[in-house]
Amino acid sequence: MRVIHAGRDRYDLGPSAITIGKFGGVHRGHRALIARMRDEARTRGLAAVVATFDRHPLAVLAPDRVPPALVSDRREEQLLAELDVDAVVVLPFTRAFAALAPEDFIRRVLVDGLDARLVVVGEDFRFGARGAGDVATLREAGRRLGFDVDAVPLVGLGATNAGRPGGAARPGGVMETGGVPSAEKCSSSEIRRLLVAGDVSGAAAMLGRAPDVGGFVVHGARRGRELGFPTANLGPGCDEALGLDRAVEGFVPADGVYAGWLDVFEGGPTGADTGTVHRHPAAISVGTNPTFADVPRTVEAHVIGRDDARVTDFDLYGRWARVIFVARLRGMVAYRGVEALVAQMRQDCADAAAALGIEE
């Protein structure tokens, strides 16, 4: 798969099937849309192309209203690449781009720029200045300019899944493309709401994968190691000893303790999910650790199931890692003393192992 930055890279993909939008999070709704486009492209002998933007449109139109990103741009490109498309074309979203009338958008971007023969969009798709264009606009232009339009119904979870308590696992049941829109539409804003509440299993049901964050493993206060529970710390920000200055990438869920996985990468480009990956089961802490004062908010992962000798040699500093959240175990609590904290940490490890279906 090629990642092409329009305006910077030269490209000629030939006749293409296109879907277009800002696919932040690449959730199940996005995946259904892209799968529909890809399958139709294969049937018609077209290139399967995802067109996205180099920033959230609100970053240009209303900077004070830009929602926090679910994933970084690089992570979005990686997730899109996993969907077996031929190319991802990144369009620069500028004020001039936002001001394009629907007809100009269709001619310049879809027809002249991408040689679209099929455009696959959600049934609520809007485009052009002030969102003046819709599916009907596309279809009318397609009849004149020689491309087909496929409007895909919204994808969501069944109404019986709505309102499940935070942290409770949701059953499967994402609707097949072409079904009746469900009571709970898959959307990035709803996923953010779930993560703010700590409902990582609910977010996973909409994402079609467990939510995650990425970052370099940096030096922390070493309190976990002193207590017998060494952790891989992701962020925040700078680690002068390692020469790193980079915040955690992705949407960090609510403070609390989670069961999940720690993926550690080696052999690839620095700061990228490439090369050899080693996956470890983990008990994950998000927050400030209220038992101790003046602790910044961090994401820490303690690898479970390792004996003391192996832990001693387990040096991950400076590695790129991804923390994957599977289940929320509990909220943050300030303990009266270190002994109570250590006892709870032991219980957290046991609970995490049970949630992951492994032996501690």
UniProtKB/TrEMBL annotation:
Record's catalysed reaction(s): riboflavin + ATP = FMN + ADP + H(+); FMN + ATP + H(+) = FAD + diphosphate
Keywords assigned: ATP-binding, FAD, Flavoprotein, FMN, Kinase, Multifunctional enzyme, Nucleotide-binding, Nucleotidyltransferase, Transferase
Enzyme Commission number: 2.7.1.26, 2.7.7.2
Pfam families assigned: FAD_syn (PF06574), Flavokinase (PF01687)
Pathway where this protein functions: Cofactor biosynthesis; FAD biosynthesis; FAD from FMN: step 1/1; Cofactor biosynthesis; FMN biosynthesis; FMN from riboflavin (ATP route): step 1/1
Flavoprotein found in the keyword field: yes
Domain Riboflavin kinase: 206-357
Class of this enzyme: transferase
Molecular function terms, GO-annotated: ATP binding; FMN adenylyltransferase activity; riboflavin kinase activity
GO annotation (BP), single: FMN biosynthetic process
Name of this chain's protein: Riboflavin biosynthesis protein
UniProt source species: Pseudoclavibacter caeni
